[in-house]
Amino acid sequence: MESDRRSLAALRKLPLARLGSVLRRFGIVIAFALLVVILSLLSESFLTVSNLLNIARQVSINAVIAAGMTFVILTGGIDLSVGSVLAVSGAVIAGLLSAGRPLLVGIGAGLAVGAALGLLDGLIVTRGKVQPFIATLGMLTIGRGLTLVYTGGRPITGLPDAFVWLGAGEVSRIPVPVVIMILVFLISYGILTQTVFGRYVYAIGGNEEAARLSGVDVATHKTLVYVISGVLSAVSAVILTARLNSAQPTAGVGFELDAIAAVVLGGTTLAGGEGSIGGTLQGAFIIGVINNGLNLLNVNPFYQQVVKGAVILLAVLLDRRLR
Amino acid sequence: MDATLLEMRGISKSFPGVRALQDVSLEVLAGEVHALVGENGAGKSTLMRILGGIYPRDAGEILLRGSRVEIGSPTQARQLGITIIHQELNQVPALSVAENIFLGREPRRPPGLVNWDQMYARAGRLLAGLGLSIDPRRRVGTLTVAEQQLVEIAKALSADAELVVMDEPTAALTVEETERLFRFIRDLRARGVGIIYITHRLEEIFKIADRVTVLRDGQRVGTYTVAELTMDELIRLMVGRQLTEKFPKEDVPLGSPVLDVRGLTRQGLFRDISFVVHRGEILGIAGLIGSGKAEVAHAIFGAGPLDAGEILLDGQRVIIRSPADAIALGIGLVTEDRKRLGLVLPMSVRANITLPVLRRLRTAFVVRRADETALIRQAIHDLDMAVTSPEQIVRNLSGGTQQKVVVSKWLQTRARVLLMVEPTRGIDVGAKVEIYRLMTALARRGVGIVMVSSEMEEVLGMSDRILVMHEGVITAEFPRAQATQEAIMASAAGRVHRGV
């Protein structure tokens, strides 16, 4: 009798349980799909090829930064300096190019600046034993100051067409920034899933002490994730500077928050050790689609921020509830 | 006295891929010490988490003093008079002893401020009642593990619990402290409190418990009166089979000295530690908690600095600055605390086992997946690990299987010296024997093993030679044939006995 009742209860539970596990695995994808459906019902121009490519182009800047942020957060750290590093790199690139230096020299110098600032971040965290939050907060301020010093507070313009192509050009209809973004994510995916370095990143975030006792050189690998974050901020600087056809002294203000939001939306835990680069790409697209949808629907820009923040919180709450 | 306090009826609980509990019942009387035993993964912790309101149950009911209760959260459990003392201590190191004891229910005075005087006074009385001379104003972080454990118990008692669950309360306690705890438990029992006592140290059950419920593979085997059981019967009930030998120790001919340490010193932890381990030898290091024995192992492994001393491997002087150096030289360290030091819990079995040897498994920067998979399959097979796939996350494994993962990790490094600190802590009898068997097999292959352990039985059962440490120095050395429990205890308590 009792066992009958129990098996009946189990039966009734089964489909729900299955739905639960589906939601758990694909929660963020489903939220994303829902968002797309709603927006395409509300706005005719949403689900068009040109608008979708437009979204992808807009997303690329945040997504590339968020890719770097994923590495850092997977080790249990955080990088608040990404927006400032982007600004410094953009200014250096624009400065050199507007002075007539060759394209590769300008871009190379920008990436080197990003790597150097990231290295500094990493060394302060690992050798100086400063909390990542504080170390990169300091770098955020220093980077912004350096940008203002370098630019004198004015935009740098007069960039060559070959450079502008990186922001505005297309490769068989696909915007160049989107191509760059896809490359960045493919390489990041390869590093995180296939290499020893990737394994160490997860191990350090999952249990730093156990990683150290397993012979992992924790300090070096932790430093390297900040270098990666710095370089990808600089890559993003290339896209942004080329798209705006100028380096702005205030470029990248607040970008760290969108990047962190994309990573967290993508299911990576801030404690480190758990998450994926694919999730980050989805997270970045959710934020991009929200931005785009609110614009298409002509929502007052003041309200847009409120809505965006609320949607991000809702998505994360939903995700936590399902886990 | 024999009123039923708690009844758990037909409790079932499943996790994805695991059936943790199946129709388990448990009855605890008021004024009874009820032991709950079973191998790792038998379902003890899950059952207690359901009782404590941490997990929801899938089926079954819980009755307290005859009426049905729903326990939806740890707070509710506490309000119902249920207190659980967890194996892992939940304390805030930066707060004082008194603050920890009264965390979340501090004595107040208007308009809502903490009544510090009352808090310290009450904490002081509580600790004195336990026979503890700990200043309630001391920060918990400055206490020894044993003291922290006792503070945790004091905290549980301050909550006026009707039902107290103790999960391995003596794991970090010395013999004296254990005795004190037992006096205390008897005291509670006399006051009509029901106590659920979980332990792997079966001899304790015969000292303190009235009845024992045995779980195996998520099911209840039965409830027995302790006075009517023998140790062997209890083990058979737990394991479900006869354990032929508890310590499968073999005599292996000793080879050349493989590890030779001389005058190792670390200020405040240990000094002038010298010993030699030969190929094929198992050297036991015994001593109480805080004797510095684990720290010696960590220092040899490069995980803690040395102020003085030298290390020779196969006669060659070596410098070890980091665990990476030690691994490269062929030294492995099975750590004492698998969750904190041994495993990366959110990672897979695969990633954990190959973590120390990834460098060997790569081409350029890329992990050779096929080679790794072959190695993992072999490793899982060799240690007979209860895993469904190499991709299973180690957090979801039972304690015994987790320990096998830790040991397996170090087998992959093909170490010539294996330092094993508390190699069987918190795992069940069956898994222990498997670990011992593995140690024997390693010794036969010529590995030199240093086993640092607080469990007297395994030190006596598995070592070829035994060193005893007390307050950072070696106080005695016994060959296997001359070692007795009494002699080791005396040396561990500080009596010097050297040069046998």
Quick gist of this model?
Chain A contains 13 helices and two strands. With 323 residues, chain A is an all-alpha fold. Chain A is globular and about 55 Å long.
Structure, explained:
The complex is a heterodimer of chains A (323) and B (500). Chain A has a domain at 60-281. A two-stranded antiparallel sheet of chain A has the order 1-2. Chain A has 323 residues and is mostly helical. In chain A, helix 3 (82-98) packs antiparallel against helix 4 (103-126) and helix 6 crosses helix 10 (218-244). Helix content of chain A is 78%, strand content 1%. Chain A has helices at residues 2-42, 49-74, 82-98, 103-126, 132-151, 161-168, 176-194, 196-206, 208-213, 218-244, 255-265, 277-296, 301-322; strands at 170-171, 174-175. With 500 residues, chain B is α/β, with parallel strands linked by helices. Chain B has 2 domains: 4-244, 3-Layer(aba) Sandwich (Rossmann fold); 246-493, Rossmann fold. Chain B is globular, with a radius of gyration of 24 Å. The mean pLDDT of chain B is 88. At the A-B interface, helix 1, helix 8 and helix 9 of A face helix 10, helix 11 and strand 20 of B.
Silhouette of chain A: globular
Low-confidence stretches of chain A: 1-13
Quantity of strands of chain B, as a count = 24
**CATH class designation of the largest domain in chain B:** Alpha Beta
Q: Biggest β-sheet of chain B: count, sense, barrel?
A: 6 strands, mixed
- Indicate the radius of gyration of chain A in whole angstroms: 22 Å
Mean pLDDT of chain B, as a whole number?
88
Widest sheet: strand ordering of chain A = 1-2
Fraction of residues of chain A in helices?
over 70%
What's the CATH superfamily of the largest domain in chain B, by name?
P-loop containing nucleotide triphosphate hydrolases
Q: How big is the Rg of chain B?
A: 24 Å
CATH topology of the largest domain in chain B: Rossmann fold
Mean pLDDT across every amino acid position of chain A: 90
| Helicity level of chain B | 25-40%
Shape of chain B: globular
Membrane topology (chain B): Peripheral membrane protein
Keywords (chain B): ATP-binding, Cell membrane, Membrane, Nucleotide-binding, Repeat, Sugar transport, Translocase, Transport
Subcellular location (chain B): Cell membrane
Protein name (chain B): Sugar ABC transporter ATP-binding protein
